[in-house]
């Protein structure tokens, strides 16, 4: 066994540090997991929006994955921003070719600012190529609506959407319910292919929620990398992201980031 659990994030770089690979690496570190990256895109981004995106070539993305797997090894992997049809295809092929099984798919489609990050043909590739490989999929309500073509207005709609996404191949589906106006609490719905169970946490009044989806999926991947079963990894990730939002950072003038190191401190 390696001396430390290893997790790989395949995602875009957020120059503001609140989301993307930066959030993923901070989360992996918080869980005592060694983090590695395959960068899919470079963004000029801050708390108010995405100013520019440069997508990296699909073959370079695949090479990053192969380099990490062939030398260091990977115990779990998560995907975030993929950006295009060709990138989704390349990432899906690389995951299959390298036998990566503990996969968390965070289907990043729209930024917190409203910027669209995934075109229609890439969404279809995500449905047909990547989600069938997923151990866990973590769409929020807008992403679940795009993936399923359904309008989700309540818990019943979340259940229907979870079943539809599971039918695409994901073994566990977590519909994040933070956008659901009917609930005073933030309630996520988990579906294991047979049963549903809700994960409830108090809704926190803050605008500083940039990177919560990345952080949540990275926390699940960290748990899986450490050998934790999916249900426990999802529950611990919910607890972690709730604490990170509670201690969120008022950095920048827009949606500030969550605090990945809340409750931890290093003395100098």
Q: Radius of gyration, Cα only, in angstroms? A: 17 Å
Mean pLDDT: 92
The CATH superfamily label reads: Ribokinase
The level 1 CATH classification is: Alpha Beta
Which structural class fits the helix and strand makeup? Answer: alpha/beta
Instruction: Say how many strands there are.
Output: 9
**What global shape is seen?**
globular
CATH architecture: 3-Layer(aba) Sandwich
End-to-end Cα distance, whole Å, is 33 Å
Strand order of the largest sheet: 3-2-1-4-5-6-7-8-9
In percent, how helical is the residue content?
25-40%
Biggest β-sheet strands, sense, barrel? 9 strands, mixed
Describe the structure.
The chain is α/β, with parallel strands linked by helices and 268 residues long. The protein has a single domain (6-246), classed as Ribokinase (UDP-N-acetylmuramoyl-L-alanine:D-glutamate ligase), CATH 3.40.1190. It has helices at 20-30, 58-71, 85-97, 120-130, 141-148, 155-167, 212-225, 230-246; strands at 6-14, 34-45, 50-55, 76-79, 103-105, 136-137, 172-175, 186-191, 196-201. Strand 1 (6-14), helix 1 and strand 2 (34-45) form a beta-alpha-beta unit. Helix 3 runs parallel beside helix 4 (120-130) and helix 7 runs antiparallel to helix 8 (230-246). It is globular. The model has no long low-confidence stretch (mean pLDDT 92).
Blueprint (SSEs and pairs):
Layout: E1 6-14, H1 20-30, E2 34-45, E3 50-55, H2 58-71, E4 76-79, H3 85-97, E5 103-105, H4 120-130, E6 136-137, H5 141-148, H6 155-167, E7 172-175, E8 186-191, E9 196-201, H7 212-225, H8 230-246
Parallel strand pairs: 1-2, 1-4, 4-5, 5-6, 6-7
Antiparallel strand pairs: 2-3, 7-8, 8-9
